[in-house]
Amino acid sequence: MELDAFRASLDSWLDEHSDELAPAFEGAGTLDQQMAQLAKVKRLAYDAGFIRWGWPEHVGGLGGSPLLRGYLGEALTARALVDPGGYSMVEVLAPTMIDYASVELAAEMVPRLLRGDEMWCQGFSEPGTGSNLASLACRAERGDDGWHVTGQKVWTSFAQFAQRCVLLTRTGLPDSAHRGITAMFVDMDSPGITVRPLGTMHGGEEFCEVFFDDVVVPFERTLGEEGQGWSIAMDLLPFERSTSLWHRGAFLNRRLESLLEAAPPGALSGAEVGDVFLQLFALRARSRATQYRMAAGERLGPETSVDKILLATAEQALFDLVPAALGDDVLLADDAGGEQWRSQYLYSRAATIYGGSGEIQRNIVARRLLDLGADA
Amino acid sequence: MDPEELALFRESLRQATANHTGKALDDALDELGWRDALTADRRAAVSALFDLQGRANATSSALDWVMAGALGVHGPVVLPPLGSWEQPRQRGLATFAFANRAPDGVVVTPVSGIDPALGMVEVTGDLGASASDAWPDTVAAGQLALAHELVGASRTMLQLARDHAVERVQFGRPIAAFQAVRHRLAESLVAIEAADAALGAAWEVGSPQTAAMAKAVAGRNARTVARHCQQVLAGIGFTTEHPFHRYLRRVLVLDALLGDTRALTQQLGDELLSRRRLPPLLPL
Fold this sequence. Notes:
The structure holds two protein chains of two kinds. By secondary structure, chain A is of the alpha+beta class. Chain A has three domains: about 5-120, Butyryl-Coa Dehydrogenase, subunit A, domain 1 (Orthogonal Bundle), CATH 1.10.540; about 120-230, Beta Barrel (Butyryl-CoA Dehydrogenase, subunit A, domain 2), CATH 2.40.110; about 240-370, Butyryl-CoA Dehydrogenase, subunit A, domain 3 (Up-down Bundle). Helices cover about 50% and strands about 15% of the residues of chain A. Chain A has helices spanning about 5-15, 20, 30-45, 65-80, 85-100, 105-115, 230-240, 245-260, 270-295, 305-320, 320-325, 325-330, 335-350, 360-370, and strands at about 120-125, 140-145, 145-155, 165-170, 180-185, 195, 205-215, 220-225. In chain A, the strands form two sheets. Chain A has a four-stranded mixed β-sheet. In chain A, strands 2-3-7-6 form a four-stranded antiparallel β-sheet, with no helix packed on it. In chain A, helix 5 runs antiparallel to helix 8 and helix 8 (about 245-260) packs parallel to helix 10. Chain A is globular, with a radius of gyration of 21 Å. The model of chain A has no long low-confidence stretch (mean pLDDT about 95). Chain B is mainly α. Chain B has three domains: about 5-65, no CATH class; about 90-125, no CATH class; about 135-275, Up-down Bundle (Butyryl-CoA Dehydrogenase, subunit A, domain 3). Chain B contains ten helices and five strands, in the order αααααβββαββαααα. In chain B, the strands form two sheets. A three-stranded antiparallel β-sheet of chain B has the order 1-3-2, with no helix packed on it. A two-stranded antiparallel ribbon of chain B has the order 4-5. In chain B, helix 6 packs parallel to helix 8, helix 6 (about 135-165) runs antiparallel to helix 9 (about 245-255) and helix 8 packs antiparallel against helix 10. The radius of gyration of chain B is 19 Å and the shape is globular.
């Protein structure tokens, strides 16, 4: 299937099924409502075949270019059918499973994620391990029946909704840094797992703490080899900065348009609106080039940090306009529209913090792209 | 051009821009057939030459040919005065080559200003230009060329600052080891890659609006790069012994030609506000 044919057939399917696909709630909805909506849209898109394009046939896909995935997520986001955050887990975690899980495990599990039967989460950060991922301490020890995992993760998005977790553990000595990390695929209903959602300033309890108390994970759930976890994580992170960024960029364009519609006359200046749209244009151009590099089979790496920096900067610049332009709605109103702007404004404050902070992204650019050598 | 031809073409342009400027560069471009290339593959010819011209801080009258081609005329094209992108009638700016081809009754005055090496001239008199339907495309063609030149100049500024940062030792280590310095250089590279990507998109879409947007991004980001790189270059970059100042001068003038960032951004924003919707987005 070529991109143009896919675009035409998807667009007409979305038009024809717009009632069925539409959310049953107004505004952003609660996190539970968003998850139900995401599962519904994925299920419909799976049954119609669209969400299977761009994935290999051995994991339930229909083959074809990853560009098809790029367009699907863009179209769903631009039509406000899914929130790009929850939808991104497919783009981030399915490639890891395809590359590092056993063929049988990937074939069994990936279709459940695509079809919306399951939600997955990503257990990377820990209380003592934010930017310095190689310092993680969540321990996994060999037992007769599998790995025994004990420790804590934090900032685990959607863990309370997730059936599975791609988890990074310490299997080497405590000071083995990036060498002693092993990735595994964990069932979230395993005995010994406790999930505690964190209240956050933007409202939805998206981020969680996850506690592991002697949780048994079968050895066949190991992703890659023992000790290969660091390179798995390094391969996964560029996926956070490629197709999912394209989708998030589509979301930002949609919200800029909503802002143009909602702002009272005179509330926005041409200079500031023009500047934000230029930033979104440059982001979209950059991210588009990344989609094409990925589609050509190029291995993505540190250059995707440029995409993330552009996204975070543009997202904050866009939402910086909101409180002043929609003051009453954002600051005072309690209706769904006001709540949505408020929540999205507050969430945008984290764009330079999550997924590798702005400082870490710039460190990567300095070290890997500008070859500035080690830092002080 | 296939990739191999393009690489050879680019290498000969690199040598021409590195070794010549002004009239001598015009002659070198004639010799290597750049104008034929402009007719055969406009994007390849414009993007390669103007990027390299920007990198080398060289100047030529190639902008005349780019704009004349778009306007469908044979003589050189007079640019609007700074701050405007309307077709000039009485007063405008032109490259140094205009002096030899100026029609009777048109007064040509050399401009020195902040960037004397650019060799621009001020033109006054009856420019005889009747409003042309091709003018928006002419402006767009010029804006793309200028944007490439801004990106090229930005790349050299970053190269100069990067080389300085890894060589200059203070407190017993290269200043490139300090995060404050690293982040300025990283910010510069991000700005350059953003402008470069915007330019690629503008070529693909091919509309006057996207050309203006790419020019606005390139101008704004070149100033960002100049600001960070000048700070990293510090004392040496403030002297005329170092080439940085020539790039800062060039960037300021290139940004101002055919609409500066501020004016283009304002125009874009005003249009969005009046329509209350976004134009069609760059398709995947």
